[in-house]
Amino acid sequence: MLHLRVISPVGRTPAVQELLLAEQGATHIVVLAGAALQPPGDVVEADLAREAADAVLAGLCELGIDHDGGITLEAIDTALSDSADKAEEDSPGDPTDAVIWDDLIARTGEESRLSISYQAFLTIACLLAAIGAITDSPVTVVGAMVLGPEFGPLAAVAVGLIVRRGDLVRRGAVAIGVGFPLAMVVTGVATVLFDVTGLLTTSALDNIEQVDFIYEVGPFSFIIALLAGAAGMVALISSKSASLVGVFISVTTVPAAAFASVALIEGHFAQAGGSALQLLINAVSIVAAAAVVLLLSRRTRRGRQDPGHRYRGRRLSSG
């Protein structure tokens, strides 16, 4: 279940109340007249079955509540109520299959910001991946995969393409297009330092059989990236974030970027080129697969409405 709180202008509260009462998946509806101070208005609260949330949010946005009032939605960990059970039973579909587009846009928008923390995580992940490749340690490389934050921006690009939000696409593209080069430059500088201190020699890259998947591009590189992108988007839309760890481990975006820098500095140009190609294939495939999952979700969505129409023109929150 999800908890909905609406700050509604007084004149539109009857319409909000009618909308919620007509929704089978809504229960525990409460109206607090004049309770809101900023912005002024009435407070309307309700608990929603996850399957009903997107339709309710669409109705509230059509009433202009997102502009003149406010809408917040949060997950309920425990709900002990026959009424809540009935609301979930009466809502068609399965709650884990329901796509809440507003929530998806908000989360991917937040996770795609080119922030200091994002850049720090990406840079540290690349450094770990570089060390893992140099030492032929797959465990270290896997650790770098888990640490890398790059799936958020890639998912944001996919969501932006489907709902036709150029700002979301740009934010994700900037996070990838700026974040990776910066992390790769730092990795390159670290490689030079490893050379100077004697921690790395050119011959060290001649025998790294345990991590050669980083730069050896093959048909399975494409297939794995597609599967990872699809699994990652399914995890996002179903709120099963724990499954994302498996997605991170599956794809070699961070290791490929890191090793491209190391191999380039050490003069292993074929390996550097293979790593760069691996990075490109993975990034494009993840976005493509994630977009396909969203398209299929839109087709099976109740009412078959365009999920992007109510988001266009709305400023993307910076979090």
Number of domains: 2
Q: N-to-C SSE series?
A: EHEEHHEHHHHHHHHHH
Mean pLDDT: 88
Number of helices: 13
How much of the residues is beta strand, in percent? 5-15%
Pick out the low-confidence regions. none
Number of strand segments: 4
Termini separation comes to 24 Å
Largest sheet: 4 strands, antiparallel
Radius of gyration: 23 Å
Helical proportion, percent range: 55-70%
Strand order of the largest sheet: 2-3-1-4
How would you briefly describe this protein structure?
The protein has 319 residues and is of the alpha+beta class.
Observed structural traits:
alpha+beta, Alpha-Beta Plaits, 2 domains, 11% strand
Any overview of this molecule?
The protein is α+β, with helices and mostly antiparallel strands and 319 residues long. It folds into two domains: 97 residues, Alpha-Beta Plaits (2-Layer Sandwich); 202 residues. The protein is 60% helix and 11% strand. The protein contains 13 helices and four strands. It has a four-stranded antiparallel sheet with strand order 2-3-1-4. The two termini are 24 Å apart.
